[in-house]
Amino acid sequence: MAETHGGGARRRWLVDVARWCPSPAQFQAAAALLPPHHHPAIARFVREEDRKRALLSRLLQYSLVHHVLGIPFHQIDIRRTVEGKPYLKNGTAAFRNFNFNTSHQGDYVGIASELLCLVGLDIVCISKPQGETTVEFLKNFSSYLTDHEWNCIDRAGGSVEMLTEFYRYWCLKEAFVKAIGAGVGFGLNRLEFHHVQWSNISVYIDGIESRNWRFCLFKLDEIHLASIAKGHPEDAVNSFKRTLSNLVFEEEEFYAALEIPEEVFTLQTVEQLTQL
Questions:
Q1: I need a labelling partner for 18 at 20 to 30 A (CA). Which of 73, 103, 127, 191 fits?
Q2: What share of the chain is helix, strand, coil (3-state, %, to 5)?
Q3: Superkingdom of the source (predicted)?
Q4: Which of the residues in the chain have pLDDT under 70?
Q5: Model pTM above 0.90
Q6: For 233, phi and psi rounded to 5 degrees?
């Protein structure tokens, strides 16, 4: 059943940016694997670490499509919607709803893919605020979380616990928005998350609990968190929905795909990503 509902198309990959220290020639060789239209988006970054993240994010997309669908690198056609959501334009009939999402922050770049469900990934680095207290830092985000979520943050304990609690909520909200392909204008306060010790996570959208979404939080290390959001294709924004070709399916089929247990991330090396 896992294969029927996307087991073969599901990937959870991570690359540790800090472990990749390429020479200029090695960096250029990796970038040369990508179509030329990606190069300006990578080169525009001033900091080397940002260029590495931008390159690895794109390499993850092409490598994943290559390994899952068997399409050669030079034939893969990845485009973006008007909101900036990457999607595969030249998919196959057997993988009609195949979609993926990348995220990068701190030491990690990651990707997640699904066959039927929408998928969103977000990675956060829990860093201490610079030049302001934790409370002052959190006030900058007062309009993005609900009263319930802020109450949970307030009750978390000291400043470190409050900061961690905040990033958990932020990570989940970003994963949802990225899954549906929405842009920066989506109101994060429309989402309210409930949980039991950060398991059995559920979402209320505009005050109504949704049965069509599942969420999972991962602790990558002491300061990095990742979240996966999986949901119904009907919830995608229009520009992204038009890239999907399997919007009509049995409810039983969707929930079977939605309830597949979440998998841990597999650490990939750049050498593995560039194996054609």
A1: 73
A2: 40, 25, 40
A3: Eukaryota
A4: 1-7, 93
A5: yes
A6: -60, -25
